[in-house]
Write a structure and sequence with these properties.
With 213 residues, the protein is α/β, with parallel strands linked by helices. The protein has helices spanning 18-31, 58-84, 106-127, 142-145, 150-163, 166-172, 174-182, 191-197; strands at 41-43, 89-93, 132-136, 204-205. The longest helix is centred in the middle third of the chain and has 27 residues, at 58-84. Belongs to the short-chain dehydrogenases/reductases (SDR) family.
Length: 213
């Protein structure tokens, strides 16, 4: 009950569906308190697939890009007219893996680099309207987004092992997979609030541990 709010609206949205994104845009338009002022902000999210290339199926790679990259592009394009009319902002959450490529993260890096490039191109285009496009590049935002929570990590570990061919399993061994999964850590970060609500936001936010700097 404490989380209920008359100002909060929840709706189903598959970012891979043109139809659902269009329906979401219409829903938002019809529920704005001041439609003439447009929409203030849009924040994306995504999914992870942390595994080495030989463990990654083409289906998994495509799924990550469809959600993280093309889903982001699809949603932003639909909502941009509402955002720039209010001089609002787009906050795209990627990762430091959109700046520094890392082993075991090829699919995720590919989508993060893509969203970063898209954001850099969109920023000057939106500047003429007084709207902002910001990039949020945490090293691991898992504790807040759930993208790298313990249960999620364990499920991914089991999925990538059972989905690997016998030859790949024999070459790498189960202990190797277990070791790689335990390297993933989570921490909570609050800089996202500043990116969305600050009067003078930074163009990029990179809340990271020291070793990324």
């Amino acid at each position: 009950d404490a989380k209920k709010s008359d100002d909060m609206k929840v709706l189903q949205l598959n970012v891979c569906s043109d139809q659902e994104v269009a329906q979401a845009a219409e829903f938002v338009k019809n529920n704005l308190k001041e439609p003439e002022k447009g929409l203030w902000g849009s924040v994306n999210t995504g999914m992870s697939a942390f595994r080495e290339v030989e463990f990654t199926s083409s289906h998994t790679c495509k799924e990550v890009e469809d959600v993280n990259l093309w889903g982001t592009v699809r949603v932003i394009k639909v909502f941009l007219p509402h955002i720039h009319s209010h001089k609002g902002r787009v906050v795209n959450i990627t990762s430091m893996l959109g700046r520094i490529a890392s082993p075991s993260c090829s699919s995720y890096c590919l989508s993060s680099f893509g969203v970063a490039a898209f954001s850099d191109c969109l920023q000057p285009e939106m500047h003429r309207w007084g709207a902002c496009v910001l990039l949020f590049e945490p090293s691991n935002f898992g504790a807040t987004t759930g993208i790298l929570m313990h249960d999620s990590i364990e499920a991914q570990a089991e999925e990538l092992w059972s989905g690997a061919s016998k030859a790949v399993q024999a070459d790498y061994g189960k202990p190797y997979v277990t070791c790689q999964i335990t390297l993933l850590k989570s921490f909570i970060n609050s800089s996202l609030t500043d990116a969305l609500a600050s009067t003078y936001p930074y163009p990029r936010y990179s809340p990271t541990e020291a070793y990324w700097r």
